[in-house]
Amino acid sequence: MIKTAMIMAAGMGTRFGHYTELVPKGFVEVQGCPMIIRSIETLVSCGIKRIVIGTGYKKEVYEALKAKYPQIECCYSPRYAETNSMYTLYNSRQAIGQDDFLLLESDLIFEKKAILSLLACKQPDVMLISSLTKFQDQYFVEYDTNHVLTNCSVKKEELDIKGELVGIHKISNSFYQQMCIDYQQIVEEKPKLGYEYELLHMSQSVLPVHVLKVENLKWYEIDDEQDLDYAEKHMAQYCI
């Protein structure tokens, strides 16, 4: 059973404007509750015992969570302003250690079914997708007849769309170690690589990533004020 989760939360959240002047993006509130707190509470309710948070911008706000949640460990990336999500994941390899883990982004709201579906899936390395949900900034996903990831892109014309990336995954430690070895070769060349594109490269050339599509899943990724407004009106009641 997987007992560890990794939340990537190093970004500056500049698209949120004044919302992130005092707090990092994960602390933006949806109907009065910060997104990161929603995620932590859901993970704990699903049996997760360790939560590694990859921090950067305003790291002290995440560090303070440890007083309430002893499950939390923080891993700071001093290069947060010049890197992206794959670097945050790569930078956390000592904290993750030898554990298999759930991997998720800090700017999500989602129902418990998202986590339970991944934990129940027998495949070791899994990308969770849903039917199309967002009205902007979508990551579209394509997979083959065996549900192996074959493509993902923000450009819908580039692929045969099978669903939309949720931003929650299940990763075996052996896969993660290979992922880090692969990224280490290009880290200085591509410091701003998004983790989803490293997952795609791995699936295409190293080890397969299984795509799990969960129909009628309630979730939303909140990148800016428009997303926040939409989520509060249409999604928040399903994702507590």
Question: Would you summarize the structure shown here?
Answer:
The chain has 240 residues and is of the alpha/beta class. The protein contains 8 helices and 13 strands.
Spell out the CATH superfamily.
Spore Coat Polysaccharide Biosynthesis Protein SpsA, Chain A
The average pLDDT score comes to 94
How far apart, in Å, are the first and last alpha carbons? 24 Å
Shape: globular
Q: Give unreliable regions as ranges.
A: none
CATH class: Alpha Beta
Helix content: 25-40%
Instruction: Give the total of beta strands.
Output: 13
Per CATH, which architecture? Answer: Alpha-Beta Complex
Order of helices and strands: EEEHEHEHHEEHEEEEHHEEH
Task: State the domain count.
Answer: 1
- Range of strand content: 15-25%
Helical region count? Answer: 8
Plain-language structure description:
This protein has 240 residues and is of the alpha/beta class. The chain has a single domain, classed as Spore Coat Polysaccharide Biosynthesis Protein SpsA, Chain A. The protein is built from 8 helices and 13 strands. A hairpin with a 2-residue loop joins strand 2 (29-30) and strand 3. Residues 5-121 form the MobA-like NTP transferase domain. GO terms for molecular function: nucleotidyltransferase activity.
Topology of this structure?
Blueprint: E1 4-9, E2 29-30, E3 33-34, H1 35-45, E4 50-55, H2 59-63, E5 72-76, H3 85-91, H4 93-96, E6 101-105, E7 108-110, H5 113-120, E8 126-130, E9 140-143, E10 149-153, E11 163-171, H6 173-184, H7 195-205, E12 210-213, E13 219-221, H8 225-234
Parallel strand pairs: 1-4, 1-6, 4-5, 8-12
Antiparallel strand pairs: 2-3, 6-11, 7-13, 8-11, 9-10, 9-11
